[in-house]
Sequence to fold (98 residues):
Amino acid sequence: MEAIEARASVLPRDFRIVCGEMTSNLWKFATGDGTEIIAALEQVLGLFETGATQGKSVTYVTGEDVAAFCHQRLRSTTSYLDKWRASLNRDVANKLAQ
Fold:
């Protein structure tokens, strides 16, 4: 995580702001050791670095709906909600089978 923070610290101000907010937001959805979130953050950081190098604004990279951009990054990760749903469905199926 320190490497991600170091890379983010040299981004232009608008990218740093959004990166910080996204990082705080994405960690709310972390499960286990958080490796899925770190992978998502590294992907975002790569996009941000490319956008900044090209002179783009952060909202050019994310779109105006930063929350939707975050949500899209989370689609490939497992959240606590996913685990809760699986657990509930398993518990119900087990009890109905008895």
